[in-house]
Design brief:
This protein is an alpha/beta fold. The chain has 2 domains: about 150 residues, 3-Layer(aba) Sandwich (Rossmann fold); about 150 residues, NAD(P)-binding Rossmann-like Domain (Rossmann fold, 3-Layer(aba) Sandwich), CATH 3.40.50. About 35% of the residues lie in helices and about 20% in strands. It contains 11 helices and 13 strands. The protein is globular. It binds 2'-monophosphoadenosine-5'-diphosphate.
């Protein structure tokens, strides 16, 4: 079975030796690669646990968390469209996740009196830091970053992480530039902290079709695509790719197709490129670390992904 619905939760362990202990919720959820990422890791760590998919209707996330815990689920990943609703259904939210405005990882804790508390984390931001280190052998905090599609969920998580990492410049680009106004103010607030000396005065916003984007790109060294442009193999690149230069690092959060038009063009411009597989991998590894309190077998997880992609 590809996935369970809430009504089917009492049957998740029927004809299975190992109990379902971890799950991803989403809608649709059948396409989620999380089981292929997590099951090999759980097996390698000799956990007596299955990882399953659960389809949840909007408005039913809190109910889903309660029901899933009741049938033995001990850790949950959250994917589209539930990352906001999941945050509201937590008793506690990690401060980074709060600023990112979304959670993708739920940890359950049982207090002595048997009460179950849910804490929400967002591993997309920290996972991106690890992905950049792995792909380009450089610290995210040392880069001047431009995010294409910063008004979307992934863009916001990555932008927040750039502030937390003290990046020396952060340019937020979006098709609908008005979506960035409040976000820029919130990120400046976040950066307005003694330990954060990064981009607090250097967070800029720009429309994707603004001709000044050329200059903004030239002033940046990491370009990140978080728009959905590129998901279809016939999609164009979200920017004029002749503006990309050999000094650029170009990261596309899309991993299927493996090389979007943006990455193909960036490569022919002489830039270094990477796709979103490393982000998928590291955000997943971090979830597992939250649940199990131990290092994730990253190479095993990478193997799981390579097998299907
Ligand atoms: P979310 O991540 O919140 O679900 P989304 O609808 O998947 O959002 O869109 C993610 C990002 O892709 C957004 O920044 C969106 O731009 P808008 O805020 O202007 O909608 C961007 N995006 C989607 N289609 C696009 C297109 N054809 N050209 C440029 N940007 C696009």
């Amino acid at each position: 079975m590809d996935y369970f619905t809430l009504d089917q939760l009492d049957r998740i362990n029927e004809s299975h030796e190992r109990p379902a202990r971890f799950a991803v919720i989403g809608n649709p959820v059948a396409h989620s690669l999380s089981p292929q990422l997590h099951q090999p890791a759980l097996d390698a760590l000799e956990q007596n646990a299955r990882y399953i998919r659960v389809e949840v209707e909007p408005g039913q996330v809190k109910e889903a968390f309660e029901k899933m815990h009741a049938v033995g689920i001990r850790g949950i990943n959250v994917t589209v469209p539930h990352k906001l609703e999941a945050m509201a259904a937590c008793h506690r939210v990690d401060p980074g996740a709060l600023t990112m405005g979304a959670v993708n990882t739920i940890v359950f804790e049982e207090s002595d009196d048997g009460e179950v508390k849910r804490t929400g984390f967002n591993t997309d931001g920290p996972g991106f830091t690890r992905a950049i280190r792995e792909e380009f052998d450089i610290d995210l905090g040392s880069l001047r970053v431009l995010i294409l599609g910063a008004g979307g969920g992934a863009g916001r998580a990555i932008a927040t992480q750039c502030v937390l990492e003290n990046c020396s410049q952060l340019i937020l680009a979006n098709r609908t530039v008005s979506k960035l106004t409040s976000m820029r103010a919130e990120l400046s607030q976040l950066g307005n902290h003694e330990s954060l000396e990064g981009p607090r005065d250097r967070i800029e916003t720009i429309a994707l079709d603004d001709p000044a984007l050329e200059e903004a790109l030239a002033a940046s060294n990491l370009i990140v695509n978080t728009t959905s442009v590129g998901l279809k193999s016939i999609d164009p690149a979200p920017i004029t790719t002749t503006w990309i230069q050999p000094h650029h690092l170009v990261y596309d959060t899309i991993y299927n197709p493996a090389k979007t038009r943006l990455l193909r063009d960036a490569e022919s411009q002489g830039a270094r490129i990477a796709n979103g597989l490393s982000l998928l991998l590291h955000q997943g590894a971090l979830s597992l670390e939250y649940w199990l309190g131990q290092d994730a077998p990253v190479e095993v997880m990478r193997g799981g992904l390579k097998e299907i992609l």
